[in-house]
Amino acid sequence: MSIGLADGRVLDIASQPMASGGPVEVTVIEEIQGRLFHSCPICWDPATDDEHVPSASLGGKIMTRTCGPCNHRLGSHVEADLADWYENALTLPRFGSSGIRGDRKSGRILWRTTPAGEFCCL
Question: Domains of the chain: which residue ranges?
Answer without folding.
Answer: 35-86, 89-122
